[in-house]
Amino acid sequence: KIYLPFLVAGLFSLTTLFGQKTYERPAYIDHIFNVQEITADELLTWDMTGKGQISIANRQVYLAESQGSAGVLLTSPTKYGRDLIVSYDVMALRPGTVLVALLSLSNREDGGLQFDEDYDANLRYIINSANAYMVAFLNSPHNRYPFINRFPAKDNPLVEDEKAHMQPGVYYRIDVGREKDHIWLAIDGEKIIEATDPDPLGEGHFSFRIRGTEAETASCLIRNVKIYTK
User: What percentage of the chain reaches a pLDDT higher than 90?
Assistant: First the structure.
């Protein structure tokens, strides 16, 4: 039997030694965007919501659910405008892990975000009571391919792919972008899906979201986070 803490520790070391890729700005990220690198230590100061844990080793962030979780959110303390691209490497550590990015996340008229103290990061609240673009890029445990949804819902999904692109145990480069009314997803430098929202949301926060299945909690590693704004 392989215990998860030892597995994670091994992956921390191996991905640091062998998994770092040289990253160049892809052509689809215009040079008019300014870039800010977010370190692992800075990610640790973001707002974590839900029942789970977060830690750092070798410049990587380990984010995981605990038993009985309804999901975990790691949300930027800063709100961003209608032009935002977030790039990062992410690895799912368990087969039951679902990985999602939330753009323009807010529940206030000014684009701000304030959760109740007892909010457990369940998706139902976001669907019914918040504004957000949800970009789901690893959700095969839910028998879905990558898609983009908008909340409040207009005509979901805005777009959905016809195949999966990711598997657990591998680092992938994720770029999620929102440029005015245009929302898109790229994996390892290739745009996978993109959509246009004729009634675009305003500014809001960015959030990583992980969720497992009934049989298995979710966990992942995150590194090399870059935020592009105008």
Answer: 86
User: Which pLDDT score, from 0 to 100, does residue 8 have?
Assistant: 54
Q: How confident is the model at residue 99 (pLDDT cuts 50, 70, 90)?
A: very high
Per-residue DSSP letters for the chain?
Answer: ---HHHHHHHHHHHHHHH--------TTS-TTSEEEEE-HHHHTTSEEEESEEEEEETTEEEEEE-TT-S-EEEEEEEEE-SEEEEEEEEEE-STT-EEEEEEEEESSTTS-----TT----HHHHHHH-EEEEEEEE-GGGT---EEEEES-SSS-SEE-SS----TT--EEEEEEEETTEEEEEETTEEEEEEE-SS----EEEEEEEE--SS---EEEEEEEEEEE-
Residues 106-160: pLDDT tens digits?
999 999 999 999 999 999 999 999 999 999 999 999 999 999 999 999 889 999 9
